[in-house]
Design brief:
380 residues, alpha/beta, Rossmann fold, 9-stranded mixed beta sheet, 9 strands
């Protein structure tokens, strides 16, 4: 139902609304993008989208930045005459990467202390088993940093006990340092930091993110008022899906957002909403999800893959978050991809590329979504 609504809107825009807006100097189609818990920020995603758009014959134009929102016009290659934007397409990056950086523990000792607090909640309070009933792969990823830490500690302790001092202690220290470097290279440290940030949100210590969501809503409404787009898509990748749900609910509650809601579509890629909703203190987030069930519903497409162990693949977000399924037509519309087959990977080889695979939703040629194609109107 949601996908049919999206394509119906596309046909209407192409037949009339889009051209009239272009004639008025506005934007035919605008995509707002929310990255996951990633401190690399806008420069990383600018390079990624430039690389993926280039084979399609498109490029990002001159960047126009504000504090919480950065815009690029999408231009065909080679670019048209100076100042022209014949396509009427725009990509907007919604910033919360600075919040990710502010909660990014850098020192191994800090990470260890916070990890111990998370381990108590995740293992001793039964959260791991509740997650495993929904998606065993996600539960394994949640325990992965803890397993890595336990193995590293066991190997270092064995070296310290078996080899006489001081060489045993020196070897133990070198082994721990090597384990840290290996964990960083394989993405285990990044996963640990992401889990700890979600843990913080779940304990309702999310005032800065909530304030940012209000700022993002203000920025979107201001932009759509000053430079309206015919069609608007809000995309959230990975833990950016948390922010997407919060932001969509914030807009849904606002009486001045009616015009935007009529043309808004939601797209979540590799979402892991239940990682946050599983916390008792995440009541506000669950209320946001319930807000999205209320009329008028915003068309929402949710895309996941069973080969992406960082997402709740094929599980309705409301079910995974312990909420009743919305009444009526299935909501959101759910699409399940085979990312391993798309890469041509064997049954075990894809595990070695687990973290990189999680970003395949953003790449050209991803079956069933093709985000760069969506940006230029070639819906996958």
């Amino acid at each position: 139902m949601a996908e049919a609504s999206i394509h119906h809107r596309d046909r209407i825009g192409e037949q009339g609304l889009g051209r009239s807006l272009l004639d008025a100097g506005a934007v035919e189609r605008r995509t707002y993008f929310l990255s996951g818990f990633d401190p690399r920020g806008i420069a990383h995603y600018q390079r990624l989208f430039q690389a993926e758009l280039r084979p399609l014959g498109w490029r990002l134009g001159r960047r126009r930045g504000e504090r919480v929102l950065t815009r690029w016009p999408l231009q065909p290659r080679p670019p048209a005459a100076a100042g022209a934007d014949p396509a009427g397409l725009e990509l907007c990056f919604l910033h919360w990467d600075d919040i990710a950086r502010s909660h990014w523990p850098r020192h191994p000792f800090t990470l260890l202390v916070r990890g111990a607090h998370f381990a108590r909640f995740y293992l001793l309070e039964g959260v791991c088993w509740r997650v495993a009933r929904l998606c065993p792969g996600v539960a394994l990823c949640g325990a992965y940093p803890l397993i890595w830490l336990a193995l590293a500690a066991a190997v270092a302790a064995a070296a310290a006990l078996v080899i006489p001092a001081p060489w045993g202690w020196l070897l133990a220290a070198l082994l721990l340092w090597g384990c840290w470097r290996g964990a960083d290279a394989l993405g285990v440290v990044w996963l640990s930091r992401s889990l700890l940030f979600t843990h913080r949100l779940g304990e309702a210590r999310d005032r800065d993110l909530r304030e940012r969501v209000r700022e993002l809503a203000d920025a979107m409404l201001q932009l759509e008022d000053s430079c309206p787009a015919g069609r608007v898509r809000l995309v959230g990748h990975s833990s950016g899906s948390f922010v997407l749900a919060m932001l969509a609910a914030e807009l849904h509650r606002r009486v001045d957002a009616g015009g935007l809601l009529q043309k808004l579509e939601l797209l979540t890629l590799g979402q892991n909403l239940a990682n946050l909703a599983v916390y008792p203190g995440a009541g506000g987030f669950r209320q946001d999800l319930q807000e999205l069930c209320r009329a008028p519903r915003i068309p929402w497409r949710d895309v996941t893959s069973r080969h992406d162990l960082l997402c709740f693949a094929g599980v309705n977000p409301f079910t995974s978050c312990g909420l009743p399924l919305p009444a009526g037509e299935p909501y959101p519309e759910m699409t399940l991809l085979n990312l391993r087959q798309a890469r041509g990977l064997g049954r075990c080889a894809w595990l070695l590329q687990l973290f990189d695979l999680h970003f395949d939703y953003l790449r050209r040629g991803c079956p069933g979504v093709d985000l760069p194609g969506l940006l230029v109107g070639r819906d996958g």
